[in-house]
Amino acid sequence: MIRPNFDDIFMELAVNLAKRSHCIKKHVGAVLTKETRIISIGYNGPPSGTHNCDEEFPIDGCARDSKGSCTLALHAEQNAILYAVKNNTSVEGSTLYVTLAPCLACARIIFSMGIKRVIFMYSYAEYKGLPFDEGLEFLKKFGVEVHKYEKDIKFEDNLI
């Protein structure tokens, strides 16, 4: 039996977490780790206790802001960070595995929280039709290690 490495394990978990999303546009999952331990998880969607977009707004989803993003949704990496902080878990020095590269706003939070490494599957810029991944460029500029996850992970959901 071949033992999977931790990058594979954590990214596969992020893909599976993305399947929990109620967003009708994009499913994103995130895993925060320190060394070989999971410290928090998250997926994109509205704050707990509000609504589920695929149930309340099944055709068009919730309202969009001026950049085309959901007005109520938290990003997967935001949810993972918030859950860790809510439970008094430090994320400083951690690694973030995320299925979609962080947007610029999330990149600022990632840097500010002291996360040292980000591993992502897909380009946020390609998904949004932007010229480049400004969130990744921000992270690199300020010393956060950034890597694209190159292996294929099989999943049925074309929203991931």
TrEMBL record:
CDD domains membership: deoxycytidylate_deaminase
Keyword Hydrolase in annotation: yes
Sections of the chain in a coiled coil: none
Keywords of the record: Hydrolase, Metal-binding, Zinc
Record-level GO cellular component terms: cytoplasm
Entry GO MF terms: dCMP deaminase activity; zinc ion binding
Keyword Metal-binding (UniProt): yes
Required cofactor names: Zn(2+)
InterPro entries, A to Z: APOBEC/CMP_deaminase_Zn-bd, CMP_dCMP_dom, Cytidine_deaminase-like, dCMP_deaminase-rel, Deoxycytidylate_deaminase_dom
Domain of life of the native organism: Bacteria
Record domain CMP/dCMP-type deaminase: where: 5-132
Family that this chain belongs to: Belongs to the cytidine and deoxycytidylate deaminase family.
Name of the protein in question: Deoxycytidylate deaminase
Natural source organism: Belliella baltica (strain DSM 15883 / CIP 108006 / LMG 21964 / BA134)
